[in-house]
Amino acid sequence: MSATAKATAAPAAHQGASYNYLNHDKSVWSWLSTVDHKRIGVMYAFTLAIVFLVAGVLAILVRTELYAPGETIMGPDAYNQTFTLHGIMMVFLFLVPSIPAILGNFVLPIQLGAKDVAFPRLNLASYYIYLIGGVLVVSAIIFGQVDTGWTFYTPYSSDGGSAVIFMTLAIFIAGFSSILTGINFIVTIHKMRAPGMTWNRLPLFVWGLYATSIVQVLATPVIGITMLLLLLERVLGIGIFDPALGGDPILFQHFFWFYSHPAVYIMILPAFGIISELIATFSRQRIYGYKAIALSSVAIAMLGFLVWGHHMFVSGQSAVSAVIFSLITYLIGIPSGIKVFNWVATMYKGSIWLQTPMLYALTFLFLFTIGGLTGIMVGVLAVDVHLHDTYYVVGHFHYVMMGGTVMALLGGLHYWWPKMTGKMYNETAGKIAVALIFIGFNLTFFSQLILGSQGMPRRYYDYIPAYTGLHQVSTIGSYILAAGLFLVLFYLLWSMFKGARAPANPWGAATLEWTHCTSPPDPHNFHHTPLVTRGAYDFHLADEVFGAQSGDGAGDGAHAPARLAGDGRVAEPQ
Amino acid sequence: MATTTATTADAPAHEHAHHPPHLQHHFVSSEQQFDSAKLGMWLFLITEILLFSGMFVAYTVYRVWHPETFTAASAFLDWRLGGLNTLVLLFSSYTVALSIHYAQKDRLDRTFWMLVITLACAGVFMIVKAFEYGGKFAEGVFPGEAFDPVGHYAPLADIPYARQFFSIYFVMTGIHGFHVLVGMGIFLWLLFRVRRGDFNSEYYTHIELAGLYWHLVDIIWIFLFPLLYLIGHGGGGH
């Protein structure tokens, strides 16, 4: 608390805050043609918010249809298309780009002490490539009739409705956006670090993005060629996947999951990074097991490539490979467990400050642990035969993706919101929203875990009356969840216009974007390239946060030695 | 152009260490900019290899399933044309390497002509490829459902799954050919920029990156050639 008080009391007239990346050029063209990583992050934020809204409304429609057996609000064809679009938009257009594109773009270069990412123009290009992919998905909606589910399994997808072509093309193109972001981040992390920013001083969000980028670069081309082959299968009938032409539909599943399993790590690894930031900052504690957390991300990225077969236990693969895939799947539990352990250990004896971002981090810990443990259960060969293609898998997936990635994204968004917009959101509204989301989420998806264990198959339009009660709990939960999310939308938009002005470091965090950067940041991030003299979570060394004179965090490397006169830790810059 | 290069090379070292015209504002030094670009390119090449790897896996699966088909159908590809294209591409890899070498030596006129030769080789490759495709299309050897071989290719109709072999052939060489076309576009653009005097021994990033790309296109062909053209000629030709 003291940090906030100090920060607010600090002189607000620092010139950087009134001249910043948001207002230095206000024309629409300056936004559309910007190569500033911060503006590109903001553009992604708006675009992805719209995608999330549309895909979320589709989910509400699905849940409403399932409120009672038989037709409730839509026919079976419309239902199939609705859940397909929900899946495709959420996975390929929202979850995959979400954290790296919004928060990664905004925060990564600043956390490294760089002026921008290594390839700013490529960064803008990746945004527009993403937009083209998004437009193609929308055109597929207009042409209609995509009801393959988000997995596009052949042969159904190779001789179903014609709009599948648009979808596969859309995913092929959106994949390039993902690849370019990944390449950009890897090079940025390798080459753009400020003086003194060694690998062991990198904030853990950077480590998370680094592991993510590796997966993006290695996995995405495979979905690219898969979608291209599927496209050619549709257009020419090349007979690679279509059994009627001598092809092998199982090969499609191998290709698809060779990307799509690592893709869930593209979605969750940056979330791990955010959680590390939040828990360290709001516990006022050096992160416990820094190297273990950093390297376990990389370990997950690597192991993630070796488990795709666990999606295919009942598709017809040899018993030996099924056993091997199952064992490696258990192995992935180890680095994930290391992380959860270290986060909890970081909170132990820390000064925990329960602000909204920290509440999201705690929600994440709770939900992700359930998601992870249910994941181990579907990784067990015999158990999976029962649970495969049931609501249990749906519940598990949503616990990991929504309970994990989306909670971390919301936590990160609240955490960096003051930095991005220069405004504080309403803390009380934030806490009410967390409560609604937490309750709504568990009602929605825990009931699905039970439904699945009782045998309710996924994707079905209709069900026997015995399942009605749990389906109704799930649907009502989804409304509560939606109410919480709309509340977030409402008060965040409100804060942009009416929110209190944010100090440079409202949370008393110790990474560069808070300690060396105004809120909102200067167009060039820093006035002088910062000189890094400590690790990202060394609060005991962070005199610029808790030190005697300046708590405004608006300092830069050039002034640090003067302020810390007599302190041998800070060397003369340059 | 020679004068431009000369002045750049002779300029006082510290002056353009601070603000050489090619240095983008967010980089500290030319070295950082060059290293970043090269690392980025290597990462891009990795994605290219993984893109092709999907097709190589499909090739492997179907060859294991239908080895006789692959051997028999492969015999209908002309190894002489494939071999010619292999030599042409190998030679162009040599010339593109020389173009980088001459850029490092500030002999941009030679860089220019080496790029011209590389571009010409790529053109020859595509012309040969067009003849190969044209000959097959003329006798009904198409990728996919339109596959209906006649004339010289008529025996293919009796080989089960021959269509699949040719689908894989067309997809793999087609996507490779697309990369050659992209390469030609890049070389044309480089020729324009070399003529304009954009490059010198301290700044030739784009030529270096194009060279890396071109070597990859070459290497992929070196795998495609034996796997597609030569497996049917194990017994000393036909």
Structure description:
The complex is a heterodimer of chains A (574) and B (238). Chain A is mainly alpha-helical. Chain A has a single domain (2-10, 36-313, 324-563), classed as Cytochrome C Oxidase, Chain A. Chain A is 66% helix and 1% strand. A two-stranded antiparallel ribbon of chain A has the order 1-2. The model of chain A is unreliable at 1-16 and 548-574 (pLDDT under 50). With 238 residues, chain B is mainly α. Chain B has a single domain, classed as Four Helix Bundle (Hemerythrin (Met), subunit A), CATH 1.20.120. Residues 1-17 of chain B have low confidence and may be disordered. The A-B interface holds A 114-116, 118-120, 122, 179, 182-184, 186-187, 190-192, 217-222, 224-226, 228-229, 232, 235-240, 245-248, 251, 255, 529 and B 24-26, 28, 32, 35-36, 39-40, 43-44, 46-48, 50-55, 57-58, 61-62, 142-146, 161, 163-164, 167-168, 170-171, 175.
